[in-house]
Each structure stands twice: as C-alpha cells, then as structure tokens.
Predict the structure.
Amino acid sequence: MSHHFDPFRSAATGWIFHCDADAFYASCHMAENQELAGHPLVVAGDPKARHGIIVTASYPARQCGIRTGMRLDDAWDLCPDLVAIKPDKDLYRRYSAAMHAVFVRHSQIVEPLSLDEAWLDMSPHLSFTMDPLPVAQELQEAVARDVGIFVSIGISVNKMLAKQVSDWSKPHGVTLLRAQELPARLWPRPVSDLFGCGPSSAQKLAAMGIGTIGHLAALPLPEVLERFGQHGLALYMRARGEDNTPVTVPRREDRRSVSAEHTTERDIVDREDAGALLRQCASEVSHRLQSLCMVGYRIAIKWRTREFVTFGRQMRVTEPLIQTEDIYRAARTLWNQRAEVRPVRLLGITVSALDGLPRQLHFWP
C-alpha cells in the first residue's frame, strides 16, 4: 500500500492543510529579482542555446499558452518577450527551507511532499467545528511576507482530499472541501482530475464508461479490485474521500528512493531533447539526495510512449550517486541501451539503495 494512502487507520480529528507553492521555481527567481515580477518567465535547461525543456512557467507565461514540458524554442515562438532562466537548485533549496520554516511555526506536524509542497496536520489547533480559513489566510500572508513567494492551500478532512483541492483556486488561493460536499463539488469532475489517475488509468476507466469521479465512487468494490487491483483500490477510496493516512514527520532512514520525472507536451523524438530532459531529472534527484545527505547505489529510468505504455531499465553502480553529472551519465547509459524507438512523452529517473553520505577518512592532521 502506498506510503501516502492507508484507509485503515483512525481518521484525523481536525483539518489537514496541503500547501503548494505557486510556480515555485519561477517564483524564487522573481523574489530574488523584483524586476522579473509580472513578466512571462520560464525556468528551462539552456536558455543561451535556446534549447531545453521547460520545468516551470510563471502565470503570465501560462497565459501565453506555455506549459511545463514544452520545448524552449516552441515557447519562444508563442511569446517572443519570454524571459528564460537556467535552474538554480541552491536558490530553490534556500527558499524551500524558508517556506517550510514558516509551516513549522503553524504546525509541528509537517510532512514535506517535495521542495514546494507539504501537508500540515492542524488537528491540535483546528477541530472540524472551527473555521480554518482565517488560519490558512494568515499562513499565506506569513509565507508571502517572510519568504517572498505565494502558496495555495487545500483544506479538507484528510491528506488526499486536501491535496486534491489545493490547485482548484491557483494561484494564491484557498479551497476548503468538507466531507459532505463531495457529491456536489468533487464527484462531477472528470475522473482524470483525481489525484493519482494518470492518462492510462483514465483511458481504461473511460473504456468502462466511467467519465467522472462520481462514477468511479459508485462502482462495486469487487469490480474495482478485479479490473484495477491495488492501484484501482487507491483511486476508488480517494474518489469516495476515504483516506486516514496520518501526516507524518519524515525520518531520513525511512526514505527508500528519490525520483524525478517530467511529461512533455509534445513527442520526444531526438537524442538532444531526451538528454536535456534526463539532465533536468538528474539535477532534481541530485538536489533531493543532497538535501537528505544521502547517496544511492541503484539507478532506474522509465519512459512512456504516446500510447501511454511505460517501460524501464535499471542497474546497480559501485560508486555512490549524488552529483548531477554522475546520475545523468548513468541514466544516459541506460537510455542508450533502450530498445524503444517510438516517440515518448515522459522520462524519469529513480535512485534507490540509499545510504548515508560516506565519511572521508583523514590520516593526516
């Protein structure tokens, strides 16, 4: 069962917040340089060469039709005034730490989900009989004031529902979903909107005549288990709003793998584009490993074709993986071994077999 899904524990006794920074990477650069505010801005691989895959687009850029996963040269065609900036992982780490420090001031039970998002268990402070909106708005104001970026917040009775609704009012929005509001507000939405329901699952559900989250919630449980197994059970329980997984303060020793993946808006058909996307994934994995002070000894890549068929390769390594170049080189070796020749839409890297950073022994004072 997924670490973030467990319907069999005791339910939360108070509101759960899911806080998600708005266009995080772009927002960090705009906070550093106020002159960038309001401009269409993207973070991408290699702006000088006008090549690379867009990792984040600011909201003015999105209004021009620019999306994450788009090629940078295509984005410039849509918006000649686009500002492109190379990723800066040290900058993002610093802003993430500052943002999470604000979260901890509001709740001691904080579970980071990534650099730019986290769950907060507000049960010790906000029971279900209390109005959580003023507290959420105060939290937003504190992040904006102390960090210089904006967050959107989803509030509900459990982690999955809070995660589900945190992007309903982006940017800088607060969305509260009560348990009794699921039939009116959640169930009419397309099943593809359900957290964890990817294109392949959505296609399978559509083939069964299931177009909305409510349709899935109304299915007989045995049918869900027969057709979709454990993953189907997770989607089914989320559709019904049934998840009692606690917000857990993570321990480093509990981490089993670190991964990053990106889906593109158009087919990846040449080696240069594939390499740019793998390098971006390698950079993000390296960033997360360094923040955990961990290294890995197994690397895997996965890719997905335009038909939503997913493939993967993996291998063990003898030297510890933590630096971007080492991770990228190993991933590129696996990619070059692939038998796949069709265009792909997703590439990802996972580093596992984790261990703490090896200590350098010094024999001389």
User: Anything to note?
Assistant: The chain has two domains: 1-179, 253-356. Confidence is low (pLDDT under 50) at residues 1-5, 359-365.
